[in-house]
Amino acid sequence: MLKQSVLIVEDDELLREFLFETLNSHPFEIDSAGDAKTAKEMIKNKMYHLVLTDLKLPDKNGMTILNFVKKVSPDTGVIVMTAYGTVENAVEAMKIGAFDYITKPFTADQIDMIILKYFDFSKLENENKMLRTQLGKMYEMENVVGHSANMMRIFEIIQTVAESNATILIHGPSGTGKEVIAKAIHFNSKRRKKAFIKVNCAALPEGLVESELFGHEKGAFTGAIKNTRGRFELADGGTLMLDEITEMSLHLQAKLLRVLQEKSFEKVGNPETVEVDIRVIATTNRDLKEAVKNGEFREDLFYRLNVVPIQLPPLKNRKDDIPLLVKHFIEKSAKENEKNIPGISAEAMNMLINHDWPGNVRELENTIERAVVICRKGMIKPQHFLTFYDSGMEMSASDNGNGDVKNLAEIEKRTILDVLLEKKGNRTHAAGELGISVRTLRNKIKEYKEKGIVIPE
User: Which domain holds residue 359?
Assistant: First the structure.
């Protein structure tokens, strides 16, 4: 494990030795310097995690060290040591970027405490940076899956508009991935380090819509027991996604229009204006022009939102992307479920390609996830979609290489009979192997018996 490196900058030799001995009780790599010139050379030639510097040095003010560190090694922490009479200078150092200060004289325990406090803070900050990086990677362009002509055009739009502040309106049927596209825009923009706040306009509680969006003051209405920030304020500096914007009432549409125009609003119960810097991305699965024509949506708000329109096609119109999506979802689900699934058979893949997917990408992802759960080992095969056929999802298998095309019902029957034979008629064991309930298996056996099919006992 890499040791934490600390540089002590102190001209008093006795204090320098005291600090060295005190810190030496920890697994730190410790260096020391008696003046600013030496310290600067050391900082240029070595990466330090922390610099502990006196504010009064023989050749330079300790502020010089602080400014130099922030310029040369901005991730390095700085703690300043100061005499009682120069505390104001130490406070000024913190404003510039020092982590903390300690006044002389101090004990070994006091210096220990402040240094360990810094390294605890540094560890937490690094973990947060890592999480933010991982979150950003989740929505990098390569993770918005697709290589069809339709998707390539959408990728080009995202890359063009991501760094702008333009309002975006994403159209598309349910399940096409509107939120994924919205997040890709956010995490590829200059707002990526700020919040991405989603508001489901259809799920906002009646009577509390304004409070949810704009916040409220304590006592503004019955149940308002504390001051609360709304979604607009929480998204300040970042991105606000208004999902299914057509579900917003005309009254609220007028307020939204004002926020977009003036970048400000009032909380419920407070007349003071709150200013915000947000980017709005709205989504809808309806034809907004038709909604405007029917008087269900404000025309002025439509044009305010429709600065950059993005139209997501249904999955049936981008079937070239299905193999890529299937591969992506298998890898994702196998990792989440800790399973080793090498892939999918050609017959099963063709079944997926031939399906119309009324639920679009979301339906495909759920289908793959269930198949991964059901598949005990090896590749995903047609029989791993049995439960979907039970729920009325008709899927046709493709040419099996012999020229005959079998439907899923035939594959299902053959699989069930084979497993029953293998399990010597034990329905509980067979159902477990098939990944279906005993009740479903019993109903299938009854259906086969009525058709005169012999069931293995």
Answer: 316-450
